[in-house]
Write a structure and sequence with these properties.
The chain is of the alpha/beta class and 90 residues long. It has a single domain, classed as Metallo-dependent phosphatases (Purple Acid Phosphatase, chain A, domain 2), CATH 3.60.21. It has 3 helices and 5 strands; from the N terminus they run E-H-E-H-E-H-E-E. It has helices at residues 18-21, 37-46, 59-64, and strands spanning 4-7, 27-30, 49-51, 68-73, 76-81. The strands form 2 sheets. A 3-stranded parallel sheet has the order 1-2-3, covered by helices on one side. The termini are far apart.
Length: 90
């Protein structure tokens, strides 16, 4: 079974604790708002990384990533997106 490190909203900060927290993971999945491409690069150096861009991400990150990412992992259909919708304002 694939072990996943899941996070989002790093907002340009790669916490040094990620190295220890994700040491036993097979992949990192980031659900957007990376902030700085250096954070994405650091995650990719650490583990294979799947990521989407979020609403704060600039053109550099948007050129590298998609808004949505759909794939299969261990027989499970996975869809990663930053904002999946908004509740009604009734």
């Amino acid at each position: 079974m694939t072990r996943i490190g899941l996070l989002s909203d790093t907002h340009s900060y790669f916490d040094p604790r990620f190295k220890k927290l994700f040491a036993e993971c097979d992949e990192i999945w980031h659900a957007g708002d990376i902030g700085d491409v250096k954070v994405l690069d650091a995650m990719r150096e650490l583990k294979p990384t799947r990521a989407v861009y979020g609403n704060i991400d600039d053109a550099v990150i948007r050129a590298d990533l998609n808004e949505h990412l759909r794939f299969e992992c261990d027989g499970v259909d996975v869809w990663i997106t930053h904002i999946g919708g908004y509740p009604p304002n009734d």
